[in-house]
Amino acid sequence: MRKIFLLLLFFASFASAGFYFDFTLSPVIRHLEANHITSESLYQEYKEEYLGYNGVGGLVSTRFGGLIKGVVAIYGNMELELTRGQANGWNKKNRERSASIFYGVGPGVTVYPFFKSSGSLQNLYLSTLMNIQIGGGGGIGLLGGNYRFETGYLWQSSERFYSGIAIGADVLATGGFDSHIKDEKGYSIWIGFKLIRK
C-alpha cells in the first residue's frame, strides 16, 4: 500500500504543478452485520443466526496528493473512525453496549466536473476511494476493505484554501479469525466539515 501511495504522489508531481491537501471531520453512523454459524454435535446440524452492530461516532480523514489542471486530484488517503453503539444477535438476549474502531489507508480520486464554470456549481466535487481497513465492532471484523463515495460543495476562503460540507457513504467487507462468523459486511454514512488546499 505504501508503494501505491508513493506512486500516486510521483505521478501527480509530474502531471500537475498543484499540491493537494484534503481534511475531513465528520460525525458518522456505522452498521455491521454477519452470520454466526453454530452446530449441534449430535446431528451435525448447522444453524445461522444474525449478528449485528450499530454505532454513532466520528470520522477523521486526511489526503495528500496532486491536482491535475485544477480538475482531477489523485492522492493517498488515511482515515480513522471511532463509534459507540449496541451489538445484538447471536447469544445476546438484549442489546449490549459495544464500540467499533477502523483505520484505513488507500488511493483515491476527486473530480471537479464544473471547474471551468463561472456559476455556483464550480466548486461541486465527486470523490471515490478504495481502502484497506483494519478494525471492527460488536465482534465483527478485523481486516477488510471498503469502497467509499463522497460528494460535497466548497466555498473559497483564500487563494488556495476552500472549506465546505462533505456527504458520503461506504460499503465494507471484512473478516476475522473466528471461523464461526461468516459474511461480515457493513456500511456507514456521514455528513461533515471539509477543508481543502488546491
Please characterize this protein's 3D structure.
This protein is mainly β and 198 residues long. It contains 1 helix and 8 strands, in the order αββββββββ. It has an 8-stranded antiparallel beta barrel with strand order 1-2-3-4-5-6-7-8. The protein starts with a helix and ends with a strand. Mean pLDDT is 85; it is low at 12-16.
What descriptors fit this protein?
elongated; 73% strand; mainly beta
How much of the residues is beta strand, in percent?
over 45%
How many separate helices? 1
What is the alpha-carbon Rg in Å? 20 Å
Quaternary assembly = single chain
Separation, N- and C-terminal Cα atoms: 24 Å
- Largest sheet, spatial ordering of strands: 1-2-3-4-5-6-7-8
User: What structural class results from the helix and strand content?
Assistant: mainly beta
H/E element string?
Answer: HEEEEEEEE
Regions with little confidence, pLDDT below 50 for 5+ residues: 12-16
Estimated helix fraction: under 10%
Q: Any idea what the shape is? A: elongated
- Overall pLDDT: 85
Structure summary, number of beta strands: 8
Largest sheet: 8 strands, antiparallel, barrel
